[in-house]
Design brief:
Elements (H helix, E strand, L loop, with lengths): L1 H22 L3 H12 L2 H4 L6 E7 L2 E7 L2 H13 L7 E4 H20 L3 H18 L4
Antiparallel strand pairs: 1-2, 1-3
């Protein structure tokens, strides 16, 4: 019974936060909350891996997950030796999750856009993330 009361209180307070975001004009933050609530990012993102080899394919950000940075380097080296010309960027879990969520958010915004112009703006944001990730240090 106590869990039901706590859950009811939580849902009520979440409603207040969402209404506050809307009333205050923070539509971007409201959209982010909706996106995070409706995404399955946390389900598909590997919970037991610490390093990720990010790469881009047809404007989408993708990854391979590894236990260690050395394992990631070794595997990418093997792929390169076999003729793979894909550019990979090895990053820690925190960076991969942050960048992945941001990229997915802009995919969501592109899909929910009201016009082709707005959709193009969010597609451009996705490409900016990819360009930043793979720019020369």
């Amino acid at each position: 019974m106590e869990n039901a009361a706590n859950l009811n209180t939580l849902v009520k307070e979440i409603g207040y936060v969402l209404q506050g975001l809307l009333d205050a004009g923070y539509l971007d933050q409201f959209e982010r909350v909706l996106c995070n609530a409706s995404t399955d990012f946390h389900i598909h993102f590997p919970g037991n891996k610490e390093y990720f080899a990010l790469f881009a394919e047809n404007g989408c950000l993708k990854y391979y997950a590894f236990d260690t940075q050395e394992e990631a380097r070794r595997q990418i080296g093997n792929w390169n030796k076999s003729g793979d010309a894909v550019l990979y960027r090895i990053v820690s879990r925190a960076i991969a999750e942050m960048v992945g969520r941001e990229h997915e958010y802009y995919q969501y915004r592109e899909m929910m856009a009201d016009s082709d112009t707005e959709a193009a703006k969010y597609a451009c944001k996705q490409q900016e993330i990819i360009d930043f990730l793979f720019s020369k240090p």
